[in-house]
Structure formats: structure tokens, C-alpha cells
Amino acid sequence: MLKRQKSAYLTIQKVLIRQKGTNTTILYEILQKKFCNISGTE
């Protein structure tokens, strides 16, 4: 489970490097919060 989360997280980072924009930054912050919530409840 954690391995899959990490790979998804890295994929998000790669996408962000490719397309730097305000919308992507906001999306990243939302996803980061979700990842924190997932790892926190585990």
C-alpha cells in the first residue's frame, strides 16, 4: 500500500516539474494533504 502511494506521489512530482502553474501547485497541495491523511490513518 505504502509503495503504491509513494510511486503515485513521485508521478505527481514528475508531472509538476513538466507543467509548472498555479493550478498544479494548488492541486499538489490538495493531494499532499490527502497523502498525509492516508498515511496518518494507517
Write the SSE topology.
Blueprint: H1 2-18, H2 22-41
Helix pairs in contact: 1-2
Keyword list:
42 residues; mainly alpha
Can you tell me about this structure?
- There is one protein chain.
- The protein is an all-alpha fold and about 40 residues long.
- The protein has a domain at about 1-5 and about 15-35.
- Helices cover about 90% and strands about 0% of the residues.
- It is built from two helices and no strands.
- It has helices spanning about 1-20, 20-40.
- It starts with a helix and ends with a helix.
- The model has no long low-confidence stretch (mean pLDDT about 70).
Name the assembly state.
single chain
Terminal Cα span: 10 Å
Which series of helices and strands comes N to C? Answer: HH
Share of residues in helices = over 70%
Largest sheet: none
Weakly predicted, low-confidence segments: none
What structural category arises from helix and sheet content? mainly alpha
| Tally of individual helices | 2
Task: Provide a short characterization of the protein structure.
By secondary structure, the protein is mainly alpha-helical. It has helices spanning 2-18, 22-41. It has 2 helices and no strands.
